[in-house]
């Protein structure tokens, strides 16, 4: 496994370009299963989660070509069953269920596992498929879905923890080829859901209301291949905004969509940072007096749970008492123990972390545990005295394209150490 050595307290300055969105690319790549035609997807980031999804699609019989950021896929003759633990290893691959049901009328995938950020149920996905006329059986850890004839229906997708992003994606991808009208109430409003809908519409789907809480889909007979460019990754952008806030002397992130980051820029402004915004760029200056803040994560357009860990790293050295509550994944706090190893003063009570800012963090050997927790450790290392060693960096490579190279281009000093041990494992 690889590790990173972060030489702390190097001032960061300059411009960084944001890659295409991981969480938009994954369902869009799955959606190519819905047509026999050729699909061309641009700005697909070079991440291990993406490679894994492309492996799944190849296993199902798709022709897959990748040339730098462009992926071309043709799903001419495909199977409906994936090898057992393929979904278990990466939760996001559950979004192949909807397109397989829509295209083949059946699908067999393994139940996704839980992961370090918490239990990852799919009851809302399965309830949605049943509302469309599918019969669902769970056998030997596999989900067997059968729907020789999907029929449009009205479905409420909100659960006790609110909306479901991949659940909305899955039901939308099954409904585009169902007979009649499907209404999804309580749909997720994340920009990645709208991006998927825009791709499906280019393929010939009839969808209205994507990006809002109510999506209306009129089923069609078949879909054609299409070309699409994925939206920028708002969580990568948010992570760099926090890096700029922590140790930046004027950093601009480019090729981003500021309207996707309003809750993050609002929180940084409240925390005392100056934020300048243009059509496709955001600049952060940390020349004001930092202030402690209170954050509650919410479904979009609220503050994203995927930015919770990164904010903990920033607030660890913000004087005063800050609180951050994760309402989406109440157990998503694996990063706290590692931040405390670096000197952070954080108490966790239920789903709320109370963070008392310290003057500085100290370098220490720390362990990455999941994608966003790992990003938080990188951010903590940037501001720590000394050299922070982060182990198991394969977690970071699941969701950040060359984060060390991008940060080094801003003035950071991060080394990546290859070790001869086992090949990297995939994230959850
Ligand atoms: C997506 O996961 C993202 N992943 C996650 O990003 C993100 O944290 C999450 O949405 C929330 O925004 C991708 O898009 C690939 P959910 P998803 O279904 O769709 C509960 C990252 O770091 N729930 O919106 O799997 C669930 O337990 C990853 O890039 C049910 O109860 O999340 C959670 O509490 C991590 N039943 C809440 O809903 C269900 O059937 C939101 O989960 C489904 C979900």
Distinct bound molecules: ligand EPZ
Q: Return residue spans where pLDDT drops below 50 for at least 5 consecutive residues.
A: 421-428
- How much is the radius of gyration in Å? 21 Å
Instruction: Give average pLDDT, whole number.
Output: 94
Helix content: 25-40%
Largest sheet: 4 strands, mixed
Tell me the count of domains. Answer: 2
Number of strands: 23
The assembly state of the depicted protein chains is: single chain
Structural class: alpha+beta
Please report which band the strand proportion falls in: under 5%, 5-15%, 15-25%, 25-35%, 35-45% or over 45%.
25-35%
Structural account:
By secondary structure, this protein is an alpha+beta fold. It has two domains: 2-19 and 232-427, UDP-n-acetylglucosamine1-carboxyvinyl-transferase, Chain (Alpha-beta prism); 22-228, Alpha-beta prism (UDP-n-acetylglucosamine1-carboxyvinyl-transferase, Chain). The protein is built from 14 helices and 23 strands. The strands form six sheets. The chain has a four-stranded mixed sheet with strand order 21-22-1-23. A four-stranded mixed sheet has the order 2-14-16-15, covered by helices on one side. A four-stranded mixed sheet has the order 4-5-3-13, covered by helices on one side. Helix 12 (371-383) links the parallel strand 21 (365-367) and strand 22. Helix 1 runs parallel beside helix 7 (191-202) and helix 11 packs parallel to helix 12 (371-383). The longest helix is centred in the middle third of the chain and has 14 residues, at 234-247. The model is unreliable at 421-428 (pLDDT under 50). Residues 23, 26, 91-92, 119-125, 159, 161-162, 164-167, 188, 305-306, 328-329, 371-372, 399 line the site of ligand EPZ.
């Amino acid at each position: 496994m690889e590790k990173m050595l972060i030489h702390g307290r190097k001032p960061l300055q300059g411009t960084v370009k944001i890659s295409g969105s991981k969480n938009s690319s994954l369902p869009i790549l799955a959606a190519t299963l819905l047509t026999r035609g050729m699909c061309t997807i641009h700005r697909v980031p070079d991440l291990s989660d993406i490679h894994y999804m492309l492996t799944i699609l190849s296993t199902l019989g798709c022709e897959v070509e990748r040339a730098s950021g462009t992926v071309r896929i043709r799903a001419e003759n495909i199977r409906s069953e994936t090898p057992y633990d393929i979904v278990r290893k990466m939760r996001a691959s559950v979004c192949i269920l909807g397109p397989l049901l829509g295209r083949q009328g059946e699908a067999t995938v393994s139940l996704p596992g839980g992961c370090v950020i918490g239990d990852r149920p799919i009851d809302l996905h399965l309830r949605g498929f049943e509302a469309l006329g599918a019969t669902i059986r769970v056998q030997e850890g596999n989900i067997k879905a059968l729907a020789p004839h999907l029929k449009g229906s009205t479905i409420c997708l909100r659960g006790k923890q609110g909306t479901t992003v991949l659940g909305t994606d899955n039901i939308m991808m099954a409904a585009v080829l169902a007979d009649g009208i499907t209404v999804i109430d309580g749909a997720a409003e994340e920009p990645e859901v709208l991006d998927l809908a825009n791709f499906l519409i280019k393929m010939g789907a009839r969808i209205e209301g994507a990006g809002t809480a109510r999506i209306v889909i009129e089923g069609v007979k078949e879909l054609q291949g299409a070309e699409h460019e994925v939206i920028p990754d708002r969580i990568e952008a948010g992570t760099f905004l926090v890096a700029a806030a922590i140790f930046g002397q004027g950093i601009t992130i480019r090729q981003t969509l500021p309207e996707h980051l309003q809750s993050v820029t609002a929180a940084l402004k409240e925390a005392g940072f100056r934020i300048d915004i243009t059509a496709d760029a955001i600049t952060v200056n940390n020349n004001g007096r930092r202030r402690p803040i209170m954050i509650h994560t919410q479904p979009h357009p609220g503050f994203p749970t995927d930015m919770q860990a990164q904010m903990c790293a920033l607030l660890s050295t913000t004087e005063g008492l800050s609180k951050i509550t994760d309402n989406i994944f109440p157990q998503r706090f694996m990063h706290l123990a590692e931040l405390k190893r670096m000197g952070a003063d954080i108490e966790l009570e239920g789903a709320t972390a109370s963070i008392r800012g310290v003057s500085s963090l100290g370098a220490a050997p720390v362990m990455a545990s999941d994608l966003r927790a790992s990003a938080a450790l990188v951010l903590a290392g940037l501001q720590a005295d000394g050299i922070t060693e982060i182990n198991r960096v394969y977690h970071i490579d699941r969701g950040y394209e060359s984060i060390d190279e991008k940060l080094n281009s801003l003035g950071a000093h991060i080394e990546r150490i290859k070790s001869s041990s086992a090949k990297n494992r995939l994230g959850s």
